[in-house]
Amino acid sequence: MRYPNILNCLLVAISAVLASGSRATAQQKRTPVTDAALRKAASDGKEWLSYGRDYSETRFSPLKQIDATNVQQLGLTKVWPTDALGALEATPLVHDGILYGTVSYGIVFAFDLRTGERIWQYDPQVSYENQQKACCGVVNRGVALYQGRVYVAALDGRLSALDAKTGKVDWQVQTTPPDDWYTITGAPRVIKGKVIIGNGGAEYAVRGFVSAYDANTGKLAWRFYTVPGDPSKPFENPELEMAAKTWTGEWWKMGGGGTPWDAIAYDPEADLMYVGSGNGGPWDRNLRSPGGGDNLFLSSILAFHPDTGRLAWYYQTTPGDSWDYTATQQITLADVRINGTTRKLLMQAPKNGFFYVLDRITGKLISAEPYGSITWAKGVDMKTGRPVENEGVRYPKGTAIGVSPGPGGVHNWDPMAWDPLTGLMYIPGQISTATYAQRPDFAYKKGQWNSGVGFVTATQPSPPAVGPAVATGQPGFLTAWDPTTQKERWRVNYKTLYNGGVVATAGNLVFHGTADGKLIAYSADKGEKLWEMSLGVRNMASPITYELDGKQYIAILGGRAANMAAGLRGGAGAAGKDQSGPGPKLFIFGLGGKNSVEDALPKQ
């Protein structure tokens, strides 16, 4: 009678050995992400290897197993509570069956997509003092993968290279002056063996710059400052000497701003890298540059030679910015036929509300039209490339009332997606107005908010002066924008602001995560809602799609720690500990999955 028990024990032991061997084999089979893999990422939809999926930042996948005919069968296959503090904004990456994601501060986790288990987690242990430097939340938007490493930038400006198998630190560098009020929330990119990273902090009056580090050693390869420094000292390059002529007063004493905290794209054929720069510090140009001027390179699209960091060309979307109209929003590259000719385009929908189409080789403006409600400008002069400002939108001696958009912009950090099959850009946006007022008593103070604006109030707008019509009481939207005609093809209105990002697929689908915790699928051609699921959380990041063992999946990070809304450590615990509650989670969807979060949660 003992033999069956012995047999069962042997079978269990053999199974355990096989399982561990399978995991070990999976570890051994991990292949490094190479330059060649990054270059061909656009055509291979099985993995998601960089922030925007490919160098062009299209966020389009050729996968079509999940399509408009079967998306109604989509359900949850895995739900994993992250125990994160604050809100999630990261785009996870997928390689060799492992998902690499980030949560607040720059905490990184590696998640086995087959077993549903966390492999490792890295915490940079950002200090409480550094948390106070974040203007807009202690968020993080993702990592980069290259040659067996995971690259992440912590909130306090440290760039770390982690071993992809173990999460251990291979090297680490401080990319920002540790005593100044810089932060990093964006995802690094790897271009030609260099890790590219920007920074934030213009509200605290720092001087923005973008840096490139050797991916193997962490050695600084080059750095480009986005605003000129003290003109009594040598300029770092001729471009900054030229830029200084567009500034007046003693701007360098307050930094100047221009922090490049998000957009990075790359064209391997042209060997040009594109970066978006941020707003001025202080916001009010009258304070930082009292004699006026365009204040280069604030709120600009910058094209660099990635080997040297020298500027190839620039285009400034908001000269002399006074409204926090950054150009750090996603930059997308595509080859598109316009008037019978295929053009190499760069497309951006920055905060100021105009959709820009540029020649990405020369920087020449092709077209610019409003894709949302704006009142600050009548349009863009095609001869000069400059916006035609409305009277009264600047506030050197008083108040500018009803300026649209407000400082949150028409489109912010939430990524858009380009679909080459429909020829449409899917842009998540919002509608708002704001009041800007001068602060006559303003005095710069290091380590404090230095916008120079007395007060800013955001309100629901009256009918828009320029741009597509918007339903009253529905401030958020998703628009399908045709860059060739500069017209809207379809629009979905929401009652929520600051919804998450989108992904488009060859299955004629657009997936969008909303601020009220839903993931929604629309038909890419017509904007018809085909499927949605409420996930019981607040805030959604940006979805991705990938293929594993022959099946297509959708993944998204979502949620906010309800009792830690600011995301600061040192409080009373994280809501994520409650697995079935509203805490931040990783959600993975597949055909035939579960219809509720509770059913898909790991069993205790």
Describe this structure in words.
It is built from 6 helices and 40 strands. It has 604 residues and is mainly beta. The strands form 11 sheets. Strands 1-34-35-36-37 form a 5-stranded mixed β-sheet, with no helix packed on it. A 4-stranded antiparallel β-sheet has the order 2-40-39-38. It has a 4-stranded antiparallel β-sheet with strand order 3-4-5-6, with no helix packed on it. β19 and β20 form a beta hairpin. The N terminus is likely disordered.
Lay out the secondary structure.
Layout: H1 3-28, H2 35-39, E1 60-61, E2 74-81, E3 93-95, E4 98-103, E5 107-112, E6 117-122, H3 128-131, E7 144-146, E8 149-153, E9 158-163, E10 169-174, E11 189-191, E12 194-197, E13 209-214, E14 220-225, H4 238-244, E15 256-257, E16 264-267, E17 272-276, E18 280-281, H5 285-288, E19 300-305, E20 310-316, E21 331-338, E22 341-348, E23 354-359, E24 365-370, E25 377-380, E26 387-389, E27 399-403, E28 417-419, E29 424-430, E30 433-438, E31 453-459, E32 476-482, E33 487-494, E34 502-505, E35 509-513, E36 518-523, E37 529-534, E38 544-548, E39 551-558, E40 585-591, H6 597-600
Parallel strand pairs: 1-34
Antiparallel strand pairs: 2-40, 3-4, 4-5, 5-6, 7-8, 8-9, 9-10, 11-12, 12-13, 13-14, 15-18, 16-17, 17-19, 19-20, 21-22, 22-23, 23-24, 25-26, 27-30, 28-29, 29-32, 30-31, 32-33, 34-35, 35-36, 36-37, 38-39, 39-40
